[in-house]
Amino acid sequence: MIGDTMDTATVDKTTAHNEQAPRSSSATPQTALQQALTSADESPERVALEVRGALPVWLTGMLVRNGPGRWDFDESEVNHWFDGLSMLHSFDFADGGVNYCNRFVRSNAYRAVEETGKLGFSEFASDPCRTRFQRIQSMFSPNVTDNPNVSVHKFGEKFIAMSEIPLAMEFDPNTLETVGVAFENPDMFASAHPHQDVEHGAMINLSCKLGARSSQSFFRLAPNGKPQRIAKFNRRMPTYQHSFGMTDRWLILTEFPLVVDPIDILKTGRPFIENFQYRPTRGTKITAIDRETGKVGGVWEADAGFCFHHVNAYEDGEDLVVDLCRFDDASIVEQLYLKRLREDGSASIGHLHRYRLSPGRKRADEKRLSETPLELPRINYGANNGKAYRFAYGVSSTDEYSLNMLAKIDVETGESLTWSEGDCAVGEPVFVASPEQRSEDDGVLLSVVLDGSSGRSFLLVLDAANLSEIARAEVAHGIPAGFHGSYVKH
Ligand SMILES: [Fe+2]
Question: Is the pLDDT of residue 341 over 80?
């Protein structure tokens, strides 16, 4: 099992008091988002956090989060928010309190930086300086990074960190220490957003092979098995894929027109993502694939755009419904370059869009579900993934600041609730269902928030029903802006 409806995990609960973790800072920070882009040092000793408010008595698991923790090295720095070294964070709940620690993943990418002070492997938008010959070598004998800085999952008995890289890295949930490679993907790149395949006790993921014959593939992987390919699509110019949708029966491949000619990766010498081109005249192609047989059930066209994150998908009679956070184009990739983001302190956020795919129709019916921007989306995954649902949660922005608001959108009515507090940079809100589950939104949201006025972070606990604050646990330092986390029951 993976994701946030996971098996019971045993975690030691040792507490230690550590007043602060030193941070390295290279510039005078301004907004909370800018401060959240400051490189940090690890603080692996567990610290009991001061809690304001009362945590729910049933909240006794652990939130593990992943994201970049260091972008600036002794001899160089990376180009993009997505390129920092993976730092894992643990918020361990017990007896009405919460303990916190963090630690860098000991990947080869991390070791290269420690040993040389420079980037050693190819990241999303950063590349070590290499000769043409070395570039060709790395194309055929992948020298891409093993820096797993995007998401965390429980997969069987293993805890794994993932990114769009050839492997998943295992770590110890008690200490956050790196164990080693958990498994290798069948292709060079795979999504960091696999779905749970409950019937098979496995996960399903989307991989991409780049080369003379490029392809996108769905594959199924059981904890102790070998990857089994479900479907493969040859693509001369593959699209960039960050996630996919899944219903009870169908896998949803949504190909927005950010495409790459793989030969350009060889020719240009530019970092990975800079070889992609936005080609809006191609439009968007959405393909439904049977999860069991791998057969294509339908292909639909839609307007151009861009998306990182699917939110949910489900079957509605003969139709398929696909919800995702959509941008008007792919310029968000450029907005998230570190220099720009640190200087400007703002980034745009997409909107929740719904695509209705009807049999016999060539075009998808598309509509915006809410005017409230939404990114880093979460739902009540355990109860509602692949099924009709009502609520999506995510980060949003006020007019004044970027990524400083949490939002809950009712996908039926388009109404939204929000939480914000001055200049506080918010992180992905992870939904944790209450044991009773009296309704879809009966539970809490957990979000790591950096307070721009103090430069320190706190774990915010909101009532998912109305976004009112239940409690917050104060951290003695700022936590760098990360991506995704999972809540694991003890
Ligand atoms: Fe993501």
Answer: yes
Q: What's the pLDDT at 400?
A: 84
Distance in Å, CA 15 to ligand 1 centroid: 31
CA of 16 to the centre of ligand 1 (A): 32
CA of 133 relative to ligand 1 center, distance in Å: 33
Asked whether residue 102 is assigned to any structural domain, the reply reads yes
Q: How far is the CA of 376 from the centre of ligand 1 (A)?
A: 7
Residue 26 lies in a domain: no
Over the stretch 98-120, which tens digit does the pLDDT of each residue have? 999 999 999 999 999 999 999 98
- Which domain, by its residues, includes 135? 32-488
Lowest mean pLDDT among 73-77, 262-266, 424-428: 262-266
pLDDT reported for residue 19: 36
| CA of 65 relative to ligand 1 center, distance in Å | 12
CB 256 within 8 A of CB 301: no
When divided into structural domains, the chain yields a total of 1
Cα 310 to middle of ligand 1, angstroms: 9
Q: Is residue 7 domain-resident? A: no
